[in-house]
Fold this sequence. Notes:
There is one protein chain. With about 600 residues, the chain is of the alpha+beta class. It contains 16 helices and 22 strands. The protein has helices at about 1-10, 15-30, 65, 90-100, 130-135, 150-160, 165, 205-215, 230-240, 375-395, 405, 420-430, 445-455, 465-480, 500-505, 565-580; strands spanning about 35-40, 50-60, 70-80, 105-110, 120-125, 170-180, 195-200, 220-225, 245-255, 265-270, 275, 285-290, 295-305, 315-320, 320-335, 340, 355-360, 485, 545, 555, 585-590, 595-599. The strands form 5 sheets. Strands 5-4-3-6-7-8-18 form a 7-stranded mixed sheet, with helices on both faces. Helix 4 packs parallel to helix 9 (about 230-240), helix 8 runs parallel beside helix 14 and helix 13 (about 445-455) packs antiparallel against helix 14 (about 465-480). It starts with a helix and ends with a strand. Residues about 1-15, about 20-30, about 400-410, about 460-465, about 510-535 and about 590-599 have low confidence and may be disordered. It comes from Oryza sativa subsp. indica (Rice). InterPro entries: CLCR, VWF_A, vWFA_dom_sf.
Amino acid sequence: MGRLHYLMLLSAGFISTLLLAQAMSAAAGMTVKVSTTPIFSKIPRAQTNKDFQVLLRIEAPPPVDLKGRVPIDLVMVLDVGGGTVSLEPVKKAMKFAIRQLSDEDSVAIFGPPMSREVIPKFMNIHGSRRIAEKKVDELEGRRFAHPARSSLDEALKMLEEQSASSSVGRAKFIVFVTDITRFSSDMPELSKYPVHAYGLGASHDAAALRLIAQRSQGTYSFLDDGNADKVAAALALCLGGLKSVAAIGARVVLKAASGSGVRIDRISSGGYASSIAQGDRASGEIAIGALYAGEVKSFVVHLDVPAAPETSPGERVCCDQQQLLVASLDGQLYTSGGVGVVDDDAAAGGGGPIQDVLVVERPPAAVLPKVPSAIVVNHIFQFRVLEMVDAFINDEILLRRTPATTGRTKDVDVDDDLGTKLLARWERFVLEHQFWVGLDLGSLDGEITAVANSLRKQNIVGVSSSMAAYIFSWMSSYKMQRPTAMGSPAKVVGVFVTLEVHLTLQVAIPAENGGGGGGGDGECHDECEYSCVEQLPPAPPLLVASGRDDDSYRFNAAYEGVISLDDINQFMIKIYQGMVKANNLKQCHLMNQQPRAVA
Length: 599
């Protein structure tokens, strides 16, 4: 009970946040939710709008509502140990990952070329967990020249050779951990399987890992020299999602409402591939791939809306309302009965399709309130920020690489302060948008400043420096809307951290187990199995002083009508059950007694 009690205490700081998230997800239902929000709720009937922005959100239910998840095939490619980075923290992180997988999952591990084979073919976790961990213990770090390409090739080849029958209803991922300083110029085909890349130490090839993550719709994380031993905690940011997959092959299908004359002008989708039908531009789609439990994907769709025709049968204009767009979710969605197909016609497990129809008012009046939706405004702004930073990376960082790598040249002033340049662009950018109604910079101002400070620490003369790694990892997080480690597991974009990621972080094995650094300052030693994580900004407290000049409390008004005492009790039970499962404990169900955990 000691381990479980420790974890319960460690999680106490997150209870308010998690309760609020739980209540919101319960209101959304037990399936993936698709919603659309227009920049304006009304468009005058005679008015055209060449850039009518629509916020599109895809919300996955939390794990407790799914009552299970999609099984995964995980390939871990390790190319560490040939340089200054130790292989030991990586091996401990791999064993941590193996323990986090469920019995329905399978794992394969490729070590550095010329080292002993680890697990070259998929091994079912059920009954083989200890065997897999022993194989990791036997791994040795030996390599020659530039082996990373061949390691990835082997992993991709094995995935391709899997029989079709063994792949049905399963999600496939590659986790690539390396400290290699230079990759070969040619990259393998990476479009089929997401690669979540981890660079260790300041000398790893950040630009190559960024490219691998981009092409595969994966993520790029890195650990700097001071945190290169914290691999397990960094990996937990990814594992929390991989072990809570709610849907695979997910894609959003967009169709202009029949008879509306609407065209899709463009789609802001960050790192997710999107396309628009050629010709009439009346349809499009966004390929999400795997969707994790509890996460939200936000996109902005730009429509060309013509003047509404006079009301007539079949024109979709009625009672001053008009349908503009239908957004549907396709893919394989997990339900209590397993993985089922969902498309335009039906949802998994029966029922109608998962979709939302965008309807706006088209009144005849020409003068209407011009107050835009604040949430849409801020998402438009966020995507524009990504475009601005992308342009900065292309202009100021990638062009600094040698001509042999990029085929382009640029005069490099070693005295250039890239941090100052980025801040100057940011300040101009903010001034250009200062009159946007409803705009809230939120955490972006502080985050851009942190990125600029990372560039100021050292003048970049090559993008293999960890200084460029920080901006690459930050962009990867925002483009994929998922957490990445930006030099340290504690440096993450908190808005993308789901409940499952939180819980996985709580049980992450500290990479410094048995390592140097002394033990007189309260750090964990060999017997400690948990790492510390930085708290996110807290939600409002559940209870506040009643104001009666005594020690009584009342519910915070922020939660009234949302959370009851029974909700709190049920949520604490779910936390307890989650901790039991995360620690591979069993529940003893005794007659007329509450379940209790035993080791």
